[in-house]
């Protein structure tokens, strides 16, 4: 089987062999040099491999990923922020028999501590970066035919789920994104998300390389990351400016942080032409603020099961509040219950399941609607919808978006299942008194129907982060964990009402 993505990049290397394909602080790699490295690296892998990649962002990461594509062997990008338990899960769940890493001591300890027989341990040198390749006895695993990449998401549970994707599906998304974003060979894309993130892998790596553009990839610490969710935004802004980036991919929290730095008087590069933002719903206030600073932000939507991006706002078609129109290869429909279903690109299946996924339309689990102009809107997750004691359905994401649209509210989580009113646990951008909060709540509630309004408020003691277990790595809040932490305060409001009734 031919690799359409590799073939497209190889074609670029023939057309413009001396153009810069990849660069970091020390390396500037042309397309012809990239192709030589990838084909050379392929000799160190075998068609029997199922390869895990656990390493920091670097040109070496890209070379290894492309080598797997070239050989048509399954590649499993593993985020460095995964816990030891999650890393072991991906190894056993995917049937990996090799792992290439820049965390040799950590992996050797994990394998030994869990009775994994290490068959070999060899050093791999790529562009001055010394990595370690472990080969070990694989756990039997069922992978769908044509699996090219298995992406694991941190999700809200301990063990992430492995989504199996084909090269065909990945190429469809990359090709549509190239068209939608009008990708230019003159572009410089700076990778701000881990390359193990499917969105950055496809939109931030494949799309620029298929377009003859330059990918600037730096270690995450060099762009301001400390851990998975602590960010030095001044450092990130400097990296964007120094790279002279024209395109970026951001999560809403990264956009918020960069805008906060801009408010302090720092300026952001005027060369930016397309900044995609996704991973969670984006507050309209952030989009408005980005416009004020001349940052060309375009909101999109996607999920791993559809090989990342499903819809995206673009230069030609941009409607604030929506997540754009479906990409060229995608067809979206809305079920009677409001769930979005997608046709045109979907996963082959999940690891270690025999469940057939050959239906025409894939049920996303998200609820929303399409307007008369074909723009898609997301109002929440189907599983998160709760029903009040008055029988009203409430999508918490919808209400939370209204709350975080207010500049003083940084994060919010809404609760009200089987209750007569809703309670919000909020994180504020500064100190605020309950009297001030009362005034803010009156303003916000005016924009909501009575059944969705927030009647009581809990001020959170700390932000919702990955480190404290209250958010995922892509900044989605963990509702169950937040409720458990603040259950006493939340339940007290309902008990107080019951006492008044009695």
CATH superfamily (homologous) name of the largest domain: ANL, N-terminal domain
- The total beta strand count reads 28
Q: Strand order within the widest sheet?
A: 4-3-5-7-6
Just name the CATH architecture of the largest domain: 3-Layer(aba) Sandwich
What is the third-level CATH name, the topology of the largest domain? Rossmann fold
Indicate how many domains the architecture comprises: 2
Low-confidence stretches: 498-502
How is the main sheet built? 5 strands, mixed
Distance between the termini: 72 Å
Itemize the secondary structure elements and their pairings.
Layout: H1 4-15, E1 20-23, E2 28-30, H2 31-42, E3 51-54, H3 59-71, E4 75-77, H4 84-94, E5 98-101, H5 104-113, E6 118-126, E7 129-136, E8 147-152, E9 162-166, H6 167-180, E10 188-190, H7 198-210, E11 214-216, E12 225-226, E13 230-231, H8 233-243, E14 247-250, H9 252-263, E15 274-277, H10 284-292, E16 297-303, E17 308-312, E18 325-326, E19 331-334, E20 339-343, E21 349-350, E22 362-370, E23 376-381, E24 386-387, E25 393-394, H11 396-404, E26 409-415, E27 422-428, H12 434-445, E28 454-459, H13 479-501
Parallel strand pairs: 1-11, 3-4, 3-5, 10-11, 14-15, 15-16, 27-28
Antiparallel strand pairs: 1-2, 5-7, 6-7, 8-9, 9-21, 12-13, 16-17, 17-18, 19-20, 20-22, 22-23, 24-25, 26-27
Helix pairs in contact: 1-2, 2-3, 6-7, 8-9
Describe it for me?
By secondary structure, the chain is of the alpha/beta class. The protein folds into two domains: 4-376, ANL, N-terminal domain (Rossmann fold); 385-501, ANL, C-terminal domain (GMP Synthetase, Chain A, domain 3). Helix content is 32%, strand content 25%. The chain has 13 helices and 28 strands. Strand 27 (422-428), helix 12 and strand 28 form a beta-alpha-beta unit. Helix 8 crosses helix 9.
């Amino acid at each position: 089987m031919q690799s359409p993505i590799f073939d497209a990049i190889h074609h670029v290397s023939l057309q413009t062999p001396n153009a810069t394909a990849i660069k970091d602080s020390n390396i500037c790699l042309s397309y012809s040099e990239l192709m030589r490295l990838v084909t050379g690296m392929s000799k160190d892998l075998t068609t029997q491999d199922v390869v895990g990649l656990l390493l920091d962002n670097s040109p070496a990461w890209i070379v290894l990923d492309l080598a797997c594509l070239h050989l048509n062997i399954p590649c499993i990008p593993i985020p460095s922020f995964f816990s030891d338990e999650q890393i072991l899960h991906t190894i056993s769940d995917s049937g990996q028999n090799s792992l290439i890493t820049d965390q040799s001591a950590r992996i050797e300890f994990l394998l030994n501590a869990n009775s994994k027989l290490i068959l070999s341990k060899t050093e791999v040198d790529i562009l001055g970066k010394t990595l370690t390749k472990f080969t070990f006895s694989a756990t039997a695993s069922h992978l769908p035919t044509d699996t090219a990449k298995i992406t694991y998401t941190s999700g809200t549970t301990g063990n992430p789920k492995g989504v199996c994707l084909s090269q065909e599906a990945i190429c469809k998304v990359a090709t549509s994104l190239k068209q939608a974003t009008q990708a230019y060979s003159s572009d410089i894309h700076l990778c701000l998300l881990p390359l193990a993130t499917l969105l950055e892998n496809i939109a931030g790596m494949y799309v620029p390389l298929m377009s003859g553009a330059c990918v600037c990839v730096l270690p995450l610490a060099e762009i301001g990351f400390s851990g998975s969710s602590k960010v030095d935004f001044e450092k990130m802004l400097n990296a964007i400016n120094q790279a002279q980036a024209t395109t970026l991919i951001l999560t809403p929290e990264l956009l918020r942080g960069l805008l906060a730095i801009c408010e302090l008087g720092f300026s952001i590069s005027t060369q930016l032409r397309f900044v995609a933002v996704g991973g969670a719903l984006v507050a309209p206030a952030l989009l408005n603020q980005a416009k004020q600073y001349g940052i060309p932000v375009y909101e999109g939507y996607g999920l791993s099961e559809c090989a990342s991006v499903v819809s995206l706002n673009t230069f030609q078609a941009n409607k604030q509040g929506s997540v754009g129109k479906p990409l060229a290869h995608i067809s979206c429909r809305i079920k009677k219950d409001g769930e979005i279903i997608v046709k045109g690109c979907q996963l082959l299946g999940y690891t270690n399941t025999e469940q057939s996924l050959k239906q025409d339309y894939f049920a996303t689990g998200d609820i929303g609607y399409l307007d008369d102009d074909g723009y898609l809107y997301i109002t929440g997750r189907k599983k998160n919808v709760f029903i009040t004691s008055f029988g009203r359905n409430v999508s918490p994401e919808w209400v939370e978006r209204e709350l975080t649209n207010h500049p003083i509210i940084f994060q919010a989580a809404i609760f009200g299942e089987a209750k007569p009113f809703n309670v919000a646990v909020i994180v504020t951008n500064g100190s605020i008194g309950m009297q001030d909060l009362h005034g803010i709540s009156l303003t916000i509630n005016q924009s909501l129907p009575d059944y969705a309004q927030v009647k009581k408020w809990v001020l959170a003691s700390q932000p919702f982060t990955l480190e404290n277990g209250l958010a995922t790595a892509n900044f989605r809040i963990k509702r169950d964990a937040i409720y458990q932490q603040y259950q006493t305060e939340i339940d007290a409001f309902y008990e107080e009402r019951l006492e008044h009734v009695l």
